[in-house]
Amino acid sequence: MKALIIAIDGPAAAGKGTLAVALAQHLGLPHLDTGLLYRAVGRLMLLEGRDCEGDDASDVAARLQPSDLKRDDLRLPEVDRAASLVAAQPAVRAALLQRQRDFAAAHGAVMDGRDIGTAVFPDADIKLFVTASAHARAVRRYQQYHGHDPSAAEISQLKAEIEARDHIDSARSVSPLKRAEDAILIETDDLTPDQVLARALDIVARHPKMTAENR
Ligand code: C5P
């Protein structure tokens, strides 16, 4: 396998993380969930009693250790919000940029996040933008956390939280969540994870680096 860089961007709970893990495994590529970087910064800010919106978090981003990404408390609702807030700070994004580029330098990578195809790897070999309606994403997120279907009230609360985070991510001035012009759109509302993977593998198989290899 030639060093292939695959960028997968999209909003929360659209299925990009599941796709990224499966794709990396299929292709034998390293995988980085870049959301974990922002989650770890947000988590450490909360632990230090600092304000994720008002206080500069770039010192925390600069001293992030690999073990910080393995904490088991990165997916709590308060960390969802803290991550989005620190991610809106330009100095935090700058502090994390080279680390993300270095990750893919040696062997290529599948990287998922919000700005991989637009800012981290604007020249990525393959760019996918994975999305779904806020309703479908709220249902999925609830099922992930609780293992059963949500009530209508629970859906509407989660949907509001997801939309609030979409808004922070899309409205920020630096590296906002947006589809790169050359990203291929995959809408996952009516697709199973296996169908999403099949679609992505089909896109990868047609890439010149892959077809040249098979010649
Ligand atoms: O993907 P995940 O939901 O874990 O990301 C947490 C938060 O980190 C996002 O809401 C977003 O604000 C931020 N993020 C980002 N850029 C990335 C990945 C995540 O701004 N490449």
UniProtKB/TrEMBL annotation:
One of its GO terms (molecular function) is kinase activity. Its EC number is 2.7.4.25. The keyword GTP-binding does not apply. It comes from the Bacteria. The keyword Cell membrane does not apply. NCBIfam families: cmk. HAMAP family: Cytidyl_kinase_type1. This is Cytidylate kinase. It comes from Candidatus Kirkpatrickella diaphorinae. The gene is cmk.
